[in-house]
Specification:
By secondary structure, this protein is mainly alpha-helical. It is built from four helices and no strands. The chain is globular and about 55 Å long. This is Retrovirus-related Pol polyprotein from transposon TNT 1-94.
Amino acid sequence: MVEGKSIEDQTDEFNKITDDLENVDVKMEEEDQAVILLSALPKSYEHFVGAMLYGREQSLTLEEVQEALNSKELKKKFEVIEESDREGLVA
């Protein structure tokens, strides 16, 4: 995964790759898929990865990782909107 490209697009690509692997009978445990996805994230997600991996008592699911990534992306979008709204009030 690369910086600057939307996480949604990149997780879609990841899902396509895992689907393609399944279609040729390569089976991966869901927790392995989650860890691979976390490992592929750009460096700017380093703290996110740490938060997802460490301090957990239960196994990690791919769905949990993708939901957390989507939440993080939505939060970032709202922060950008709020910041631009504040700038508009100052101008």
